[in-house]
């Protein structure tokens, strides 16, 4: 049976199964209407995770805004402006509110926008996001998976802090957001909005959205398909980018201590919607759309990454049975194993032949060495014999010389005695 025939039969079976589905009326209470409650109880027991990425230049108040958002004080160290490159600092916190546990991961950029050459400022951020996707993908592809207990570190929301210049977006902002819009839910916010007048702020928001649209940057839009939040989300989409103010200080306004910033001309109240959009951001990010941000991360951004990675691995969407793919991969692995064994055998034979050649060469060298050694010994022996003969000749010559000198001496003395007479 060919693959096309199998696919046709599978399609027919699925169609037949769909046609056989019938609606039945229950005669009494069964109990599966408690499934939503069971799901809620299970979710509360397991807890939730939420990961926030804050991108912005040094000094825009990223840490302060997070402290204000979650009404606590996170660990933060002021960053310098002399770092050679962009780094990311990640911290994991466990929060609890009304018996609901939340694992909050806060990731902040360090040194972003401080370099003279800002061309690759986004690279470290993109690599970090991809690495979190890859970790989740590798866990999914394991034979023994533990997805429910696996700590999900994928970025659910990206708060992009825009400097309150009042003019337009910087090139680094557009480039970075364009690189990230297919990987993460981007929520642009204007930091330190108390630095801009209200009329300038309105124009600045319009200018930012115009530049994002003209450059094809896709930012996160609050969902409007749910009737319960459609109206408020549709209204809040018109307030993006949010102009926010953060503060770790409490000031007394009337009889209440509230978060705010005191200036000579007055007090900026963080939670006063007439002063900034902080309350709108908190409502949309945490209280209304946190689960949608998590869902969008999984169904949209992660699925895109997963599809591209599986395509790189050679997987494609088709009606081929997974068993056939496994068998084909197994056959390919067997063939590769066979080729590897053949190459190993060839290598072993070559090594043995080379060892034999080296042993033969070594044997020849030893024989040559022995011959040279023997030749040297013979030459040494001949030289010693010649030396011995020469020494004997020298001794003989010395004795003859001594005898001649003695003879000459005797002859001279005898001649001298004759002359005296």
Description of the molecule:
- With 421 residues, the protein is α/β, with parallel strands linked by helices.
- The protein is built from ten helices and nine strands.
- A six-stranded mixed β-sheet has the order 2-3-1-4-5-6, with helices on both faces.
- Helix 5 (171-180) links the parallel strand 4 and strand 5 (186-190).
- Helix 8 crosses helix 9 (290-312).
- It is elongated and about 160 Å long.
- The termini are far apart.
Topology record:
Elements: H1 3-19, H2 35-46, E1 48-55, H3 62-69, E2 87-97, E3 100-110, H4 123-140, E4 157-162, H5 171-180, E5 186-190, H6 198-214, H7 230-237, E6 242-243, E7 250-253, E8 256-263, E9 266-269, H8 278-288, H9 290-312, H10 322-420
Parallel strand pairs: 1-3, 1-4, 4-5, 5-6
Antiparallel strand pairs: 2-3, 7-8, 8-9
Helix pairs in contact: 8-9
Number of helices: 10
How far apart lie the N and C ends?
Answer: 152 Å
What is the element string, with H for helices and E for strands?
Answer: HHEHEEHEHEHHEEEEHHH
Radius of gyration: 46 Å
Going by helix content, strand content and strand pairing, the class is alpha/beta
**Proportion of residues in helical segments:** 40-55%
Rough shape? elongated
């Amino acid at each position: 049976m060919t693959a096309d025939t199998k696919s046709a039969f599978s399609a027919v079976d699925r169609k037949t199964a769909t046609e056989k589905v019938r609606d039945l009326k229950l005669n009494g209470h069964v109990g599966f209407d408690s499934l939503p409650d069971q799901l809620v109880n299970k979710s509360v027991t397991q807890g939730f995770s939420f990961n926030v990425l804050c991108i912005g230049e040094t000094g825009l108040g990223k840490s302060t805004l997070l402290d204000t958002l979650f009404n606590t004080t996170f660990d933060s160290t002021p960053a310098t402006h002399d770092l050679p490159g962009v780094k990311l600092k990640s911290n994991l916190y466990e929060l609890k509110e009304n018996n609901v546990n939340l694992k909050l991961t806060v990731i902040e950029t360090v040194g972003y926008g401080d370099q003279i050459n800002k061309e690759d400022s986004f690279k470290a951020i993109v690599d970090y996001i991809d690495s979190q996707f890859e970790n989740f993908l590798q866990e999914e592809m394991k034979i023994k998976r533990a997805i429910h207990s696996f700590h999900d570190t994928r970025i659910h929301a990206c708060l992009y802090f825009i400097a309150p210049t009042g003019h337009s977006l910087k090139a680094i902002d557009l480039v970075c957001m364009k690189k990230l819009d297919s990987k993460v839910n981007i929520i642009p916010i204007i930091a330190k909005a108390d630095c801009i007048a209200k009329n300038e702020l309105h124009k600045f928001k319009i200018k930012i959205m115009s530049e994002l649209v003209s450059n094809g940057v896709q930012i996160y839009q609050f969902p409007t398909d749910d009737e319960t939040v459609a109206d408020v989300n549709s209204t809040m989409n018109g307030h993006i980018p949010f102009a926010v103010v953060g503060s770790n200080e409490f000031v007394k306004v009337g009889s209440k201590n509230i978060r705010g910033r005191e200036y000579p001309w007055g007090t900026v109240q963080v939670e006063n919607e007439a002063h900034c959009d902080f309350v709108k951001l908190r409502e949309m990010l945490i209280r209304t759309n946190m689960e949608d941000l998590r869902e969008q991360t999984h169904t949209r951004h992660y699925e895109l990454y997963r599809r591209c990675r599986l395509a790189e691995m050679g997987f494609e969407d088709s009606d081929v049975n997974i068993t056939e793919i496994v068998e084909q991969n197994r056959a390919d692995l067997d063939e590769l194993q066979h080729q590897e064994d053949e190459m190993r055998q060839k290598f072993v034979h070559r090594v043995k032949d080379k060892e034999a050649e080296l042993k033969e060469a070594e044997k020849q060298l030893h024989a040559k060495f022995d011959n040279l050694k023997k030749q040297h010994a013979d030459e040494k022996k001949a030289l010693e014999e010649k030396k011995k003969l020469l020494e004997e000749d020298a001794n003989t010559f010395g004795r003859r010389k001594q005898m001649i000198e003695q003879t000459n001496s005797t002859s001279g003395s005898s001649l001298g005695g004759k002359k005296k007479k």
